[in-house]
Amino acid sequence: AAPLIISNAKGSCGCTVPSYPKEPIMPGGVSFIKVKYDTNRKGGFTKYVTLTTNSTSESTTRLKVTGNMKAAIPPTPAKEKNLFN
User: How far apart are CA 27 and CA 43, in angstroms?
Assistant: First the structure.
């Protein structure tokens, strides 16, 4: 079997930005596709990343990315120290 070569990865919108390995992935090897999502958008989401590869069965593969962005928890303010005691 030939190494897998990913020639492109494209998010379904501008809020989903994938990065992918540029080097060939050998048979039995492992690599990672990282996906950044715009965390300013709160609530549940389903986005897709389309990979273009040299696979003989299909030239594109669609990955489904789901999640739920919750509002950030504000930090607890530190107690002020009294410097004059």
Answer: 38
Do the Cβ atoms of 50 and 58 come closer than 8 Å?
no
User: Mind listing the pLDDT tens digit for each residue in 16-73?
Assistant: 999 999 999 999 999 999 999 887 878 899 999 999 999 877 788 999 999 998 877 7
| Nearest partner of 51 among 11, 15, 22, judged by Cα | 11
Q: How far apart are CA 65 and CA 37, in angstroms?
A: 10
pTM exceeds 0.85, yes or no:
no
Nearest Cα to Cα of residue 68 among 46, 43, 48, 51: 43
Q: Are 19 and 38 in contact (CB under 8 A)?
A: no
